[in-house]
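I hope you will forgive my troubling you with a question about protein structure. You will find the record immediately after this paragraph.
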Amino acid sequence: MEVVNALGRRKSAIARVYVSEGTGKITINKRDLTEYFPSSILQYVVKQPLNKLGVAEKYDIKVNLCGGGFTGQSQALRLAIARALVKINPEDKPALRAEGFMTRDPRAVERKKPGRPKARRRFQFSKR
């Protein structure tokens, strides 16, 4: 099997994933998964598509992650891994779609509007 690549985004985080056959090692920005995401919850989020299909020990994953915070990065990585797994085996798509791993979360930060302190916040109203 050759290297399969995929892209995942969430908020302002971008994850580029390169999946090849191996022993289940996940390397993010040249660091191990447990080192990059010390939180077990975020590690679980990243591994969700692999665990759903039962292929966690079958592929080596190399990741370039940039932008966003740790939660957005982990969810971007989950989407990228799911997309790569579908490229490898298209029959897996319905199972991953049912869990919601194939859907790009469209929510992002709303832009600041002119004449306001934030996107929706208004300056305090003064009656007198």
Q: What stands out?
A: Helices lie at 33-36, 40-53, 70-88, 93-99. The chain has one domain: 4-99. Residues 4-99 form a domain with the Ribosomal Protein S5; domain 2 fold (CATH 3.30.230.10).
